[in-house]
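Please fill in the sequence for the structure shown.

STRUCTURE ENCODING:
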């Protein structure tokens, strides 16, 4: 530990800033490239699984087609938003790389703006998933909806 501190003390200011910038870039890259949340992934799996319970829920062919259409639209929107998210994350990494080249050259305001943009895209994805779930719930009869809640409850207990 002490030798690490001595090494840090020996580094000149430029090297310290460079190392900090690279560490920040690495942390942000990992953070920004992380999948949504485990909760969002579980919601997505549960919603898609509704078609696996077609017989148990006694879904009509019309209901199945409506649900498939909603899921198709969601998939299309999520793919579009993921594409935007990838581009924004690349822009953040490029800004961080550029800022790591020279002391004081990091445009922190641009970095902040891009990070907020990335989170806005993630929020749009989460909202789209919730809206789709509500649309699917609206397709179900009250009896099917109660059965679907019961199924989801059992599935959550298993996990």
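FILLED IN BY: designer on duty
SEQUENCE:
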């Amino acid at each position: 530990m002490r030798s690490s501190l001595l090494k840090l003390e020996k580094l000149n200011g430029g090297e310290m800033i460079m190392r900090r910038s690279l560490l920040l870039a690495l942390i942000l890259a990992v953070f920004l490239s992380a999948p949504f949340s485990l909760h969002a992934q579980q919601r997505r799996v549960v919603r898609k699984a509704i078609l696996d319970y077609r017989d148990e829920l006694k879904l009509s062919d019309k209901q199945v087609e409506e649900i498939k259409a909603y899921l198709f639209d969601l998939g299309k929107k999520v793919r579009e938003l993921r594409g935007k998210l990838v581009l924004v994350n690349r822009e953040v990494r490029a800004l961080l790389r550029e800022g790591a080249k020279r002391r004081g050259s990091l445009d922190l305001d641009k970095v902040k703006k891009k990070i907020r943009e990335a989170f806005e895209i993630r929020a749009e994805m989460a909202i789209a998933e919730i809206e789709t779930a509500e649309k699917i719930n609206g397709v179900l009869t009250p009896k099917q909806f109660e059965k679907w809640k019961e199924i989801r409850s059992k599935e959550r207990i298993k996990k």
